[in-house]
Amino acid sequence: MISESQFKDVCGKVKALLYFGSYTREDYVDGISDINVIAITNDKSVLMDLASMDLSPVVIDEETLNKLCQDGDPLCYYVLNDSKLICGSLPNFTFIFTDKTCSKLLRYSRTQAKMSLEGIARRDEISSVNNLYRGIRSFIRSKCCTKGKIPLSDEEVIACCKGIGNDEICELFSKVRELRRNREPVTYWTIRRFVKIMEVEDKDSSL
Hints:
By secondary structure, this protein is α+β, with helices and mostly antiparallel strands. The chain has helices spanning 8-11, 45-51, 62-71, 74-81, 99-122, 125-145, 154-161, 167-181, 188-206; strands at residues 16-20, 36-40, 56-60, 83-88.
């Protein structure tokens, strides 16, 4: 973890500062994973403070975060269930699953697939494998979400995937996960395989 003394100035400006995402668990891959932090504050200067520390920050005020929780935004779920407090105290929010929750996870998976293809075009192998990993993970999360749970760690994602009745997406996630861990590139055809799975899903859902 980053030394907490580095956050001294930032902590004086926030209601709460937290790590969230893979940096809080075993899925973090040094040099590939982002170090995500969220600051709950009205002070927008905190965004530059955290970005200058090579972090991936989200800066949000308490009222907006509470609204996201009421709307069922996955960001709120991650803050409440997939985070580690650095300083301050987290307000007493309650996450509510809504129709938007699962659909946002699915939309995010499509965005990440597109970004993975763009990484291939730029010959940015790290970006491509990392975005494909995120996209497949979010796709599986969207399916598990319909059952009232969003799996967080890779092991939870794999376990939940086994119950959604799509062996191909589970196998693909495991494959891309290992490529990412080993810093190996993905191919265009691996990304297209995921895109085809999403296209079949879209077709089936429209029937």
